Amino acid sequence: MAVVLRVLRVGLCRPRGGNPVLLNSILFSRPAVLCATAEERRPLACGIHTSPRSLAGSKAASLHWTAERAVSVLLLGLLPAAYLYPGPAMDYSLAATLTLHGHWGLGQVVTDYVHGETSVKLANTGLYLLSAVTFAGLCYFNYHDVGICRAVAMLWSL
């Protein structure tokens, strides 16, 4: 405990009028920024690329991540609810959330593994087409057949 207090006192106090050791502004800088300024000295030391600071204030990515987590948690609740209370509302809710969950998951695969401008555009077009066909097929199955909840129950009864 005494060592921690001593380190904090040395870091927080200005030793002989100089800058504090632990509260030096270099320690609070982003590593990518440090690498960019020291690139001339160590060209192979930096391999991290960050997004430009102009996009740093955008909350779209954060909101999208939060929405993905909300849909995942919603599915955790919908699956037992679909077993306990089957019906048309539950069937269409499952169709929408399963399609959205699958669309966002495959979108991350496209983002991570498809490279090149034309390839990305084709993959995204195919993804939107697949998601639309999946949702339409699930809605058709819900309307013209037994529905998702009863279909799963029938599979379990085999």
From TrEMBL:
GO terms for cellular component: mitochondrial inner membrane; respiratory chain complex II (succinate dehydrogenase). It holds the Pfam family CybS. Pathway: Carbohydrate metabolism; tricarboxylic acid cycle. It is a multi-pass membrane protein. Heme b binds at H101. The keyword DNA damage does not apply. Component of complex II composed of four subunits: the flavoprotein (FP) SDHA, iron-sulfur protein (IP) SDHB, and a cytochrome b560 composed of SDHC and SDHD. Belongs to the CybS family. This is Succinate dehydrogenase [ubiquinone] cytochrome b small subunit. It comes from Salvator merianae (Argentine black and white tegu).
